[in-house]
From TrEMBL:
Residues 1-184 form the BPL/LPL catalytic domain. The keyword Ubl conjugation does not apply. GO terms for cellular component: cytoplasm. It holds the Pfam family BPL_LplA_LipB. Keywords: Ligase. It comes from freshwater metagenome. This is Unannotated protein.
């Protein structure tokens, strides 16, 4: 495939009809690959989501894209913002194609239409810690019977028409590049670049109507507690989700974990 629109934004773009994982391929070649290099696959046989979950979709039904980011002059301690940055870029992209739908960013980097997942992002640090590979999957053409879980959706299911893969990809890359360059120019400072405020505004986990109760399921090594029940009240300067636990006076900052929106349940 040619991707003329996308190549205007990312000239160093490679398309492969099939691969195991676009993230794994870019990580393997990262030492000899430039900043904002892009790998797109028509089909992945070993795609991965967060926490090592498989990401599988029928051939030709989804966008599979990975981008290598090597932010010069940015400390690796600020790389924690890159998954949120990519999630925000995809949220903006989906919202453009579904203007009548409620599209939001579920912390840290899932994109929801209502409460149904349409996209996920996986970030992986490269070996020399000079950058991160950001992989994104977006459901495009799947029907309900194609999706493995009930709370998933696609652009087609939500009513998008005339879906052009190059147009979708170009929209995502344009959003990603704009946010990324602003963040790099601010030396990775998410507050100074405006990234933190944009993420907070887009984040449906922080429902401003008060419908912000969540269950945070934590990695085994993160805390003595396996989960936290409470209200999601903010995102701090490092990108962590701030939760006010039920029955406690002190809020907690969560750096990693699976977040379940309870929504009055």
């Amino acid at each position: 495939m040619d991707f003329p629109l996308s190549r205007q934004i990312a000239p160093n773009l490679t398309f492969v009809a099939e691969t195991g994982s676009t993230n794994a391929d870019l990580i393997q070649d990262s030492a000899n690959t430039d900043d904002f290099s892009v790998l797109v696959a028509g089909f992945q046989t070993a795609g991965r989501g967060r926490a090592g979950r498989d990401w599988v979709a029928p051939s030709g039904s989804s966008l599979f894209v990975s981008v290598l980011l090597k932010p010069a002059g940015v400390a690796a301690t600020n790389f924690s913002w890159l998954p949120l940055l990519a999630g925000l870029a995809m949220t903006k992209t989906v919202a453009k194609f579904l203007p009548e739908r409620e599209v939001g960013l579920k912390w840290p980097n899932d994109v929801l239409v209502g409460e149904k997942k349409i996209s996920g992002v996986l970030s992986e640090l490269i070996g020399d810690q000079s950058g991160v590979v950001i992989g994104a999957g977006l459901n495009l053409l799947q029907q309900k019977t194609d999706l493995p879980i009930e709370n998933a959706t696609s652009l087609v299911i939500e009513g998008a028409t005339s879906i052009n893969l190059d147009e979708v990809l170009a929209g995502y890359l344009a959003n990603l590049r704009e946010l990324y360059l602003e963040w790099v120019q601010a030396s990775g400072n998410a507050v100074a670049s405006g990234l933190r405020n944009q993420v907070i505004q887009a984040c449906s986990t922080l429902d401003r109507s008060g419908n912000n109760r969540v269950r945070a399921i934590l990695p085994a090594s993160a805390s003595a507690e396996s989960e936290i029940l409470g209200a999601a009240v903010g995102i701090d300067d490092t990108g962590r989700l701030i939760i006010q636990p039920d029955g406690q006076s002190e809020a907690l900052a969560v750096a990693a974990g699976d977040i379940v929106h309870l929504r009055h349940n």
